[in-house]
Write the structure tokens for this entry.
Amino acid sequence: MDRRVFFAVTIPGAAGLGIWIFSELFPSESDILPPGPPKTVSIVEFSDSGLRVGTRSVSAILKSDREWRRQLTYLAFQVTRKSSTEIPYARGYWNLHERGLYRCVCCNTALFSSETKFESGTGWPSFWEPLANENVALSEDHRLAVARTAVSCTLCDAHLGHLFDDGPDPTGKRYCMNSAALHFVKMASGLA
């Protein structure tokens, strides 16, 4: 290969790689809010001991990227706001065996219980059902060659992970979640 061809290929490639790395390390932080007024959603509230408190209708949480970035760690922002996926086995919740609730890292909505958590062998925390179906939203995800079902928080639209049909009984479902999207609250007493 001629020296000119080598530089003609490597310099734009290196520049593109540099731009991609910079955009990953320093995500854009827009002050633009999602369009339109917040929609009204129904969520089920739970105490930290796992007691169902009740259902309430509230306005969905709308924040700009800049507001979310100030609130979240880099990884939590990438996962919840940009629909990234964390590296398997890299965060602790896949191997956490304490009793408690898994809440949304963005808005603290109760999402999953340790009572429905199981070892999936994937490196991500997996559950066979959410605490309340109202608290999670499902949508189609076509970012890969195979269509998947994305799972997000109903209240703040945080991307949590994906739903698969290869879980254990009684549901046969596997809610495969990112640890970075969750906040664990240890229970002082058992679930009711």
User: Anything to note?
Assistant: The chain is about 20% helix and 30% strand. The two ends are 71 Å apart (CA to CA). The chain has two domains: 1-29, 31-186. The chain has a mean pLDDT of 87.
